[in-house]
Amino acid sequence: MNPAMSSELADVARLEDIVDRQALGEVCLSFFELFALPIRVFSTDGTLLTDVHDEQAVCRYVNTFSSGRTACSGLVADVRRLDPSEGPIDHPCFTGASYRIVPILYQGRRLGRFVVGPYVPAERREVPRSLLVIDPGVDPETARDALGQMPRVRLETVERITAHLGKVLDLILFSGHRAFLTTEMHVASVRENYRALTEKAARLQDAYDQLRELDRLKSNFLATVSHELRTPLTSIIGYSDMLAAGVVGSLNEEQAAFVETIRGRGDHLLALITGLLDMNKLEQGKVSLARQPMQARDLLEDVARTILPSAIKKGVTVSAVCPDDVPPLLVDPVRIKQVLFNLVENALKFTPKGGSVRLAARRTELDAPDDGGGMGLVLMAPGRPAVELSVQDSGVGIPPHEHAKIFSAFYQVDGSATREHGGTGLGLAIAHRLVEAHGGTLTVESAPGEGATFRVVLPEQDGAA
Amino acid sequence: MQLDFTAREVTVKLVYYGPALSGKTTNLQAIHELVAPASRGRLMTLETKDDRTLFFDLLPLMVQSGGGISIRLKLFTVPGQVIHNATRRLVLQGADGVAFIADSQTGETRANQAAFLNLRENLVENGLDAASMPLVIQFNKRDLPDVRSDDEIDRLATKGKEPVFKAVALRGQGVLETLLGLVDVTWRKLEQEHQFAERFGVQSDALLRDVRSKLGLPGSEEIR
């Protein structure tokens, strides 16, 4: 807390804390110019804050005598010492002049005083004896002339003038105090807000650190468990294979069906575990891409060929279209085929008999990421040349509010559909991350009942050709 | 509270709290109008251009009591708008008593409750004991339609422990009663803590009567 200002109470203890000395000096000067009355302003402890006066002829004359000088400094000391605790004081000078000492009150507290004078009360006609006897050398005529040059004011006028000055000073104090409090409050509010925000930020950082640690633990757990699961699973699948192949003797029809079920379920489980491991690697940024130039046409046709037997079985037509102007891509063929295969498999899964799945490629542009809030748009807007690989189906479609969610791990639009259609719930999540790892985008356009189109947009790489 | 033994001067901080637009500043304006000019300072408002309180309003009241004790009451309002919470907390620092100005309109019930919870939170944040803070509650804007009924307020007032007042601050009704009620509960708490009667040789009742008449206030009657 400022020692001079009790901030909690918005109290003022010292005049000089809230008053602007220059402004105070200017007001007193203008006052002096108007009324020709000297003014001095003192703080409570007697510090002189403003002093506006002209040396008076009578003072100059008195000071030519050594006894006069002594008397004068004694009187000045008296005036400075006087404490107007009970209200204004009128103090006479031996020259016949007078001083008026007025307390400066603010919010009921005395913060200082101002002294108006010397002036000659208009009621005074004669040179007082106290002036004539100050030194045997005092000449009554010279003294009268000198005193005559001092401003003459009626006492009640002085009272009115000092009351007015008191009001002006009060206004200056009030304005100064108000400005002081505003500034103080402003700074304090900013500090308080900063403190509150810093505390909140620290709490959020703690929570964030905890979450990150949890995420790391989860990833480790997944990696370990997946690995540990995969080892025995490989044996289960291997031995089922050997059983099915009749390595240890032929199986009857029922035994063969059982073994096939074990193998099929084993494969599904292996796919799930491999998917989990993939996800984990992708999330940790551990996937390395073996990029090589690839023709979009080759990619599409390869994927279409792979899915064709299942499509024929389900009664769904599969086509692949690729114009000649589509440039080659610099991608990891295994990973991109994994993406496309996933999308195509998905499309087939949700497309009923008689429907179609269409793979296509075309030249396009990849929008620049708008991270500047529209800044420099003229520079940023032209996108990079890119190739779009799309998978379009005529299946059940996906409601718009689900579009953002389907790329999350384990998310299924319809939980019950998982049972109907199978799947691990990891396919799209992995595909999304794989495309991102290539610097591309994976988006969906769909409405319920109108099929779905998944678009993989991959930037053209310099040197792909 | 600030105590100056040599000057026999006690400064008490009273804070007007409440939801936005419940009439806190209007209370201070009305008090400024009604109190004897010799006993009041200027009403200082630190407000935005649309007349909403930005930091606070401050009205100093000064009473020279018969026992030679000088009592200075510093009346503050807080900004009611939700975003100014830091300022509210700052103004509340070192408060000796709180007048909670509630809006009587039934639609404002929730806002009153939220502001009151905010008051309690900020008292705790400032290290003040919310339960023992001298408090009075004023239901303002009694002249508006669709306000909570007198019966309802009276019934609830008898259940609560703090004095409850009804007011139309715009017309100056009930504001002095609220102020006096607050001075009363605050002084009695301070008396318990600081034994003014013993140290200054002035009894609370006599002193409070003195404060009342010096401020030029009529006798007051609270609801219960």
Question: What does the model show?
Answer:
The complex is a heterodimer of chains A (465) and B (224). Helices cover 50% and strands 19% of the residues of chain A. With 465 residues, chain A is α+β, with helices and mostly antiparallel strands. Chain A has three domains: 5-153, Beta-Lactamase (2-Layer Sandwich), CATH 3.30.450; 196-281, Orthogonal Bundle (Helix Hairpins); 290-369 and 377-459, Heat Shock Protein 90. In chain A, strands 3, 4, 5, 6, 7 and 8 form a six-stranded mixed beta sheet that branches. Chain A has a five-stranded mixed beta sheet with strand order 10-12-13-15-14. In chain A, strand 3 (39-43) and strand 4 (48-52) form a beta hairpin. In chain A, helix 8 (253-283) crosses helix 13 (427-437). Chain A is rod-shaped and about 150 Å long. Chain B is of the alpha/beta class. Chain B has one domain: P-loop containing nucleotide triphosphate hydrolases (Rossmann fold), CATH 3.40.50. Chain B has helices spanning 24-34, 85-92, 109-125, 150-159, 175-194, 196-200, 204-214; strands at residues 2-4, 9-17, 44-47, 53-64, 70-77, 97-103, 135-140, 164-166. In chain B, strands 1, 2, 3, 4, 5, 6, 7 and 8 form an eight-stranded mixed beta sheet that branches. In chain B, strand 7, helix 4 and strand 8 form a beta-alpha-beta unit. In chain B, helix 2 (85-92) crosses helix 3 (109-125). The chains are: A alpha+beta (465), B alpha/beta (224). Chains A and B meet through helix 7 of A and strand 4, strand 5 and helix 2 of B.
Spell out the blueprint of helices and strands.
The complex is a heterodimer of chains A (465) and B (224).
Chain A: E1 5-6, E2 11-12, H1 15-18, H2 21-35, E3 39-43, E4 48-52, H3 57-62, H4 66-81, E5 89-92, E6 98-106, E7 109-121, H5 129-132, H6 140-148, E8 152-153, H7 155-244, H8 253-283, E9 292-294, H9 296-314, E10 317-321, E11 329-331, H10 333-349, E12 356-366, H11 377-380, E13 384-393, H12 415-421, H13 427-437, E14 441-446, E15 452-459
Parallel strand pairs in A: 7-8, 10-12
Antiparallel strand pairs in A: 1-2, 3-4, 3-7, 5-6, 6-7, 9-11, 12-13, 13-15, 14-15
Chain B: E1 2-4, E2 9-17, H1 24-34, E3 44-47, E4 53-64, E5 70-77, H2 85-92, E6 97-103, H3 109-125, E7 135-140, H4 150-159, E8 164-166, H5 175-194, H6 196-200, H7 204-214
Parallel strand pairs in B: 2-5, 2-6, 6-7, 7-8
Antiparallel strand pairs in B: 1-2, 3-4, 4-5
